[in-house]
Write a structure and sequence with these properties.
By secondary structure, this protein is an alpha/beta fold. The protein is about 35% helix and about 15% strand. Strand 9, helix 3 and strand 10 form a beta-alpha-beta unit. The longest helix has about 35 residues.
């Protein structure tokens, strides 16, 4: 299936940590890695470009790994760069194989044929998402991402954001808890928002299955080193269980109200 793209000695398209975690949470990191298959010759990019945010979500691998360990949760990490194939996009949309990222052309993605796109999908996208389906069960789905502090010359002042589509409740609860910390600028559905057209993980894996979910975005300068990653993992490990408990209490209250109305 993938021999022509990934050599036998190249890493698998994903890794899983703590597959038997007890927390009832599945963390995903769609843009954790920045590897390029050797067959693609770095997509024609400079080595310096593959260090930048255009290639991956800087800091999210370490942050997610620490957070999953603190909560005894399962986590799955994409190995290959979003420039090879964006695993948070429907594979049929052009953005899944970006020809330009921010203001940087990606020569190796220009003029891809349907067969070339299919090869990338079979090697990278399909195995990753099949593993998510195998792992998710009835877990709370938490998509972990990071965003660049400056995009196309525009500074982003928020430090963390919660993104959502059809089901905002858990996001709203966690956003409130983060604001209560008193030292954060917290955004909701900024600098991005979730939709069926621009995302894949939350709409497909969470919303179609009726799972509660979060999509968390952390500003990259805050998690660019091990100290920042540890600090954010510890903060979220403290607040996430509170948010999940608050959601459970709300659900019980709504269920009780419905029963009382039926009497």
């Amino acid at each position: 299936m993938s021999e022509a793209l990934l050599a036998a000695d190249e890493p698998a398209p994903f890794r899983v940590e703590n597959a038997d975690g007890s927390a009832g949470i599945l963390f995903t990191a769609d843009h954790a890695g920045r590897r390029i298959p050797r067959a693609l010759n770095d997509l024609g990019l400079r080595a310096a470009d593959l260090e930048r945010h255009i290639a991956w979500d800087i800091g999210i691998d370490g942050t997610t790994a620490r957070l999953a360990k603190l909560l005894d949760a399962t986590a799955i990490f994409q190995t290959y760069s979003r420039l090879v194939m964006d695993c948070n996009r429907d594979p049929d949309v052009p953005d899944a194989y970006p020809t330009i990222s921010e203001a940087t052309p990606v020569p190796g993605n220009a003029g891809l044929t349907p067969a070339e796109k299919l090869l990338r999908r079979q090697a990278i996208f399909d195995p990753y998402h099949a593993e998510i389906e195998a792992l998710k069960g009835q877990k709370i789905y938490i998509a972990m991402h990071s965003f660049t502090p400056v995009y196309l010359g525009v500074e982003r002042q928020m430090q963390v954001a919660l993104l959502y589509n059809r089901n905002p409740r858990l996001s709203a609860i966690l956003a409130g808890l983060l604001r209560e910390e008193g030292d954060l600028a917290v955004a909701e559905n900024l600098p991005y928002q979730v939709s069926d057209e621009t995302d894949y993980g939350v709409p497909v894996h969470a919303e179609r299955s009726g799972l509660d979910y979060l999509e968390i975005e952390i500003r990259q300068d805050l998690i660019a080193d091990a100290a920042g990653q540890a600090a954010w993992a510890e903060r979220l490990a403290r607040l996430l269980p509170l948010a999940i408990r608050k959601l459970a209490i709300e659900k019980l209250a709504i269920e009780k109200l419905g029963i009382e109305k039926l009497r």
